[in-house]
């Protein structure tokens, strides 16, 4: 028994093969290890405990080097602990603070991305345990760094939406660690992992070389890395992104996130997540532009009417805001206090109330080049007689950069003087910098478009289309009146790829 365990240790420690090896040899070695570990029983993997110098297999392996065997052995320990506890939930047997949990955390923080793509389902099940513990924790902030690291280790661009993204934004919202989510949510999502057509997954996943982790194409094609993403989770992610940006008062990004939720294609059914996004979208639009935002052109016409019928209190806020009467707006807010509280929008609604005064001041610039504080108080202040408060309020707007103006005293009168628009002429170096930035962004977009094109070329529907096209051209070539050649240009296709279907 000891000899068998020693043999296993030697096999584990000799994995993966040392460089230099060819890509094919490396791929073959990893596939062999996966097959080998699959054949070993969990009891055999756990039986290594206290037989090798008092250490079990996990104590002898490095998760960053022997990722595949470490993962299988770790799963065997989880199964063994679960069996002993007679529990139906793996998360209850791997709770935070236990020795097993520390090993799970160590693995998640140190796995080799290149090896992980050979065991996506097993890796996903381990991540689910980690996610569940993070969400159940009273201090989810301690897991945020690890969640973010997992995303970038699997996909350095963070452009493929995964369940790890959703776990991250949930943890950031629960822990109120909004800034911690920005490195991920500031990056655009270009892809959503596919869940069907396994043949296209195999055909598109041709890269098994030694490289920097799993390719983005591999992740896009293989939903096992992400877990099943349904329509609700997609909406949930962008709604949560909007909430995080709202918490940081980054109104423009918040508005865009909510718009993504509103513009998701629909057959007519209205998701309540879309309703929640619409409520916040209205309020954030006012805070950003000082007016109600307009529906994006890509919004389905089927949702516009029903969504407004379900958000009448918010529509009333919009209409009252337009009137420019602080008293009426405050009264409308007080009437709907229970609604705002139930929707967790009380703070946002009061932001709108305070913004009404700010936008009223900003509108004065369209009428005056200079105006007395008395006139400003008369037009914008809740108490026109309190000139001291008005002057202090204007000073704060100037200091924060929201108002481009100066305050000057002329005798006993304080004058608010609006500054002329700044010179928009930009230096050549600034223009070159902006052009280079736009070039990089366009190059990145083009790369993802090409990736989508590649995937479309190997999906079953497209290959079937090529087959039909070939048959049609064969018929046309031999039909009466033809010149013996194809009647149209046949698109190039891969015959071997077709035969795989």
Write a brief structural summary.
The protein is built from 27 helices and 3 strands.
Commentary on this structure:
63% of the residues lie in helices and 3% in strands. It starts with a helix and ends with a helix. The protein has a 3-stranded antiparallel β-sheet with strand order 1-3-2. The longest helix has 31 residues, at 428-458. α10 (141-154) runs antiparallel to α11 (163-175), α11 (163-175) runs parallel beside α15 (231-247) and α15 (231-247) runs antiparallel to α16 (251-262). The protein has helices at residues 2-13, 23-39, 42-46, 57-60, 67-85, 90-93, 99-110, 113-116, 120-136, 141-154, 163-175, 182-185, 198-204, 216-221, 231-247, 251-262, 272-289, 301-309, 312-323, 326-335, 337-342, 346-363, 373-380, 387-399, 428-458, 460-478, 495-499, and strands at 370-372, 405-410, 413-418. β2 (405-410) and β3 form a beta hairpin. The protein is an all-alpha fold and 501 residues long.
Layout of helices and strands:
Blueprint: H1 2-13, H2 23-39, H3 42-46, H4 57-60, H5 67-85, H6 90-93, H7 99-110, H8 113-116, H9 120-136, H10 141-154, H11 163-175, H12 182-185, H13 198-204, H14 216-221, H15 231-247, H16 251-262, H17 272-289, H18 301-309, H19 312-323, H20 326-335, H21 337-342, H22 346-363, E1 370-372, H23 373-380, H24 387-399, E2 405-410, E3 413-418, H25 428-458, H26 460-478, H27 495-499
Antiparallel strand pairs: 1-3, 2-3
Helix pairs in contact: 5-7, 9-11, 10-11, 11-15, 15-16, 15-17, 16-17, 17-22, 19-20, 20-22
